[in-house]
Design a protein that fits this description.
The protein is α+β, with helices and mostly antiparallel strands and 386 residues long. It has 2 domains: 9-194, Endonuclease Chain A (Endonuclease, Chain A, 2-Layer Sandwich); 197-379, Endonuclease Chain A (Endonuclease, Chain A). It has helices at residues 16-29, 46-60, 75-80, 82-87, 106-109, 156-175, 210-220, 237-248, 264-271, 274-279, 313-318, 329-346, 352-356, 360-379, and strands at residues 6-15, 34-39, 64-70, 91-95, 116-119, 123-127, 147-152, 195-202, 225-230, 252-258, 283-287, 295-299, 303-307, 321-327, 347-350. β9, α8 (237-248) and β10 form a beta-alpha-beta unit. α7 (210-220) runs parallel beside α8 and α9 (264-271) crosses α14 (360-379). It is globular and about 65 Å long. 45% of the residues are buried.
Length: 386
């Protein structure tokens, strides 16, 4: 993989929906020509309805609005919201609408998991935040924890090209006729700051391992610290060995993972790896204040990533994903401070002695869950070193 870096960008880190949704809505309200929005979930809740109103307003004032929602994550959207948006002039596509309830066929498991927005080719958002309220569980007094970035500058060119390309592919798959979007002048966004960044995708053609390889290269080059926050952390062999190798050469590694689980089977499978990681000196912290949904990392205070890709088989082997990778000390420091604050507010560290003193039943359950997840991956057609 050869990463293409773009200099002179301006990146604004957005934490949780409280920062992301107002910024997204303001950008849509300011659109003059076009809006692209891709999301895995578009919920019929106060947040989803507010974003829907913004999209409809844009379409009604003559902006070309293109909305793509995943057919599995957006099942509620298809049933309850799509027709209203289409009637208002929003162009809506559903990514792989037909999904069998218990299908493990590889084609059916390939989802659109990206969360991207591009406004007029001049402003973009990339991250892990779906169009859904942060406060999914009424019993929790804290929002779901996640991040996105607002982007201006030359990095807009590959992001804009990617959303156009996926729109054309899905339109062709939906209507069985070739659809090419009207050509637009080459994007030459003006330099607006000094941040160097790259846009990486994961697809099932030419970019199958770009995001994973970027992580692996950064971890292999780490000298001091790796701070990784990931909602669904179930790395394959290559990723595990990269972390273990870094720990052996003295790199301080901290993993922030879910404590409150919205997918318990995957959480139990992740815990099967705790013993090996803790034995290697890797620090593991579970986030319990709310649901952790972040997919971010900081390495050596100068490399960082924010995006939609988890470190698990779904993201790394099946789904369409999008991440921004940043080489900038200021941005990395800001993300690191946010993560340290999250750890302080809601983290519970797993200590090696406490984990080893856990019950035998607990260990059996974690390995049973791990084996079941591996079996599901095998049925889907993947295995080996992944």
């Amino acid at each position: 993989m050869s990463t293409v870096w773009y200099r002179c960008n301006s990146l604004t880190l957005l934490e949780n929906g409280i920062e992301f949704f107002p910024a997204l809505q303001a950008a849509i309200d300011g659109a003059r020509r076009e809006v692209f929005l891709e999301t895995y979930i578009f919920a019929n809740d106060p947040v989803g309805r507010a974003v829907s109103v913004c999209l409809q307003r844009a379409a009604q004032r003559g902006v070309t609005v293109r909305l793509m929602v995943d057919g599995f994550g957006g099942r509620e959207f298809v049933a309850e919201m799509m027709d209203e948006l289409a009637a208002a002039g929003v162009r809506v596509l559903i990514y792989r609408r037909e999904v069998g309830a218990f299908s493990l066929r590889r084609r059916r498991l390939r989802r659109l998991h990206r969360k991207l927005a591009v406004i007029d080719g001049r402003l973009a958002f990339v991250g892990g935040i779906n169009i859904v309220s942060d406060f999914e569980a009424p019993a929790l007094d804290a929002p779901r924890h996640d991040y996105a970035v607002r982007i201006e500058g030359p990095l807009l060119a590959p992001i804009h090209a990617s959303v156009r390309r996926v729109w054309e592919l899905v339109a062709w798959a939906s209507f069985r006729q070739r659809l090419r979007l009207a050509p637009t002048p080459p994007l030459q966004p003006a330099p607006c700051d000094q941040v160097e960044a790259a846009f990486l995708i994961r697809d099932n053609i030419r970019h199958r391992r770009d995001i994973e390889d970027a992580y692996l290269q950064a971890i292999a080059g780490a000298r001091r610290e790796v701070l990784l926050a990931n909602a669904y952390f179930l790395p394959g062999r290559r990723f595990r060995h990269a972390l273990l190798d870094a720990a052996r050469r003295g790199v301080r590694i901290t993993l922030l993972v879910q404590g409150l689980a919205d997918h318990p089977l995957q959480q139990w499978a992740t815990r099967a790896l705790y013993g090996q990681m803790l034995h290697a000196g890797i620090r593991i912290i579970e986030y319990h204040r709310s649901y952790l949904h972040a997919k971010v990392a900081v390495i050596d205070d100068h490399w960082a990533t924010v995006g939609s890709s988890n470190i698990d088989p779904f993201s790394l082997l099946l789904a369409r994903e999008g991440n921004v990778v940043v080489r900038d000390a200021g941005f990395a420091l800001q993300l690191r401070e946010r993560l340290e604050r999250a750890i302080g507010d809601g983290g519970k560290e797993i200590h090696p002695r406490d984990w080893l003193r856990g019950s035998r039943v607990q260990r059996v359950l974690t390995w049973a869950a791990y084996g079941l997840v591996r079996l599901m991956i095998g049925i889907a057609g993947y295995g080996g070193k992944h």
